[in-house]
TrEMBL record:
Protein family: Belongs to the RNase PH family.
Coiled coil ranges: none
Keywords: Nucleotidyltransferase, RNA-binding, rRNA processing, Transferase, tRNA processing, tRNA-binding
Assembly behavior: Homohexameric ring arranged as a trimer of dimers.
InterPro entries named in the record: ExoRNase_PH_dom1, ExoRNase_PH_dom2, ExoRNase_PH_dom2_sf, PNPase/RNase_PH_dom_sf, Ribosomal_Su5_D2-typ_SF, RNase_PH, RNase_PH_bac-type, RNase_PH_CS
Exoribonuclease phosphorolytic domain ranges (all copies): 14-144, 163-227
Molecular-function GO term, any one: tRNA nucleotidyltransferase activity
CDD domains linked: RNase_PH_bact
PANTHER family: EXOSOME COMPLEX COMPONENT, EXOSOME COMPLEX COMPONENT RRP41
Name of the featured protein: Ribonuclease PH
Catalytic reaction list: tRNA(n+1) + phosphate = tRNA(n) + a ribonucleoside 5'-diphosphate
Enzyme Commission number: 2.7.7.56
Species whose genome carries this gene: Pseudochelatococcus lubricantis
Pfam family, one: RNase_PH
């Protein structure tokens, strides 16, 4: 008999099934199709042989990201943001988060005056699209940098560490790892953690949906996130080995 409080039946500390499939886009220098359960995100890394205009002449490059959700990634069709003329505030916030997360583990001087753009397109959404995107984006970025290294385009090792992300929350009074949509939409507390392979914290986003959460609860969520990202980093290592 399943006594789990979670709609999926998972244990509180259990990730959804996660897969990382490389080289799924023919023309991109690096690509990865990442799946966190029913959340599927296509990540592609594209090399541009020029830095952003504001970085020219400084001897270093840049890594940035763009994020988008396909119209039928969700239960009901959502309008393409291009038709409204600009990305939503949520989209801008997520793509900036992905870019910050990747730059945290890249030596920008090593890539020279170039830019790598990582596009994260949500094919299907069931909660945790930003955390899945960051985890898959690292694989796409890794392969782009490997492509550059094979062509002697790097002055030094550019990738300093892994980076992965996972959501945590308090659902029905219990801290749980890797929320799907059913949990995310009903959680008392929702948080996203971005951590490096060596355990460094890149970013923490936490929101109380009802009553404020305590410091003790935050630390319990962080402990869950550390265990979860360790598993994600192991999957990244297996994917690129």
């Amino acid at each position: 008999m399943n006594t789990s409080i979670r709609p999926s039946g998972r244990a509180p500390e259990e990730l959804r099934k996660v897969t990382l499939e490389r080289a799924v886009a023919r023309y991109a220098e690096g690509s990865c199709l990442v799946k966190f359960g029913e959340t599927h995100v296509l990540c592609t890394a594209s090399l541009e042989d020029r830095p952003p205009p504001w970085l020219r002449g400084q001897g270093r490059g840049w890594v940035t990201a763009e994020y988008a959700m396909l119209p039928r990634a969700t239960l009901e069709r959502t309008r393409r943001e291009v038709t409204s003329g600009k990305p939503s505030g949520r989209t801008q916030e997520i793509q900036r988060l992905i870019g910050r997360s990747l730059r945290a583990v890249v030596d920008l001087h090593a890539i020279g005056e170039r830019q790598i753009v990582v596009d994260c397109d949500v094919l299907q959404a069931d909660g945790g699209t930003r955390t899945a995107a960051i985890t898959g984006a690292w694989v796409a970025l890794h392969d782009c940098l490997q492509w550059m290294q094979a062509r002697s385009m790097l002055s030094a090792k550019a990738l300093k560490d892994h980076v992965a992300a996972v959501s945590c929350g308090i659902y029905r009074g219990t801290p749980v790892l890797d929320l799907d949509y059913a949990e995310d939409s009903a959680a008392e507390t929702d948080a996203n953690f971005v951590l490096t392979g060596t355990g460094g914290i890149v970013e923490v986003q936490g929101t109380a949906e009802g009553a404020p959460f305590s410091e003790e609860e935050l630390l319990r969520l962080l402990a869950l996130a550390r265990a979860g990202t360790e598993k994600l980093v192991t999957l990244q290592k297996l994917a690129v080995s």
